[in-house]
Amino acid sequence: MEEQFRQLLEEEFSRYGFPLDTKQIEQLTIYRTELQRWNTHTNLTAITEDTEIIHRHFLDSVSVLNHCNIRTGDSVVDIGTGAGFPGIVLKIYIPDIRLTLI
């Protein structure tokens, strides 16, 4: 199941123009696992299926890059982050941003 998720993650990100490296795939897989685990007792999200997590959380989070020019070294503030979207996903995708979650 983990391998299927990793493969789907890589395919979907590539399809939308956001290629992932091995480390990013691993980090997003861990994030998904922790999100699902914590969601069982702390209602973080109604979205719990892998495909929906990829599309409605992960890809939605990086889609801001289609509209904003966020580069390495930039500061990003995620206000009202809740379960960490989009901030944590952006930090995984562009590791060298300075991220503040509020």
What's the domain count?
1
Biggest beta sheet attributes: 2 strands, parallel
Q: What number is the mean pLDDT?
A: 94
Report the CATH C-level class: Alpha Beta
State the separation between the terminal residues, measured CA to CA.
Answer: 33 Å
User: Could you give the order of strands across the largest sheet?
Assistant: 1-2
What shape does the CA trace take?
A: globular
Structural class given helices, strands, pairing?
mainly alpha
Order of helices and strands: HHHEHE
Strand content: 5-15%
Please estimate the helix content. 40-55%
Number of helices: 4
What name is given to the CATH topology?
Rossmann fold
Number of beta-strand segments: 2
Task: Supply the CATH superfamily name.
Answer: Vaccinia Virus protein VP39
CATH architecture: 3-Layer(aba) Sandwich
What would your notes on this structure say?
The chain has helices spanning 2-15, 22-39, 50-62, 87-93, and strands at residues 75-78, 98-101. By secondary structure, it is mainly alpha-helical. It has one domain (2-101): 3-Layer(aba) Sandwich (Rossmann fold). A two-stranded parallel ribbon has the order 1-2. Helix 1 crosses helix 2 (22-39), helix 1 (2-15) packs parallel to helix 3 (50-62) and helix 3 (50-62) packs across helix 4. The model has no long low-confidence stretch (mean pLDDT 94).
Q: What is the structure about, briefly put?
A:
By secondary structure, the protein is mainly alpha-helical. Helix content is 51%, strand content 8%.
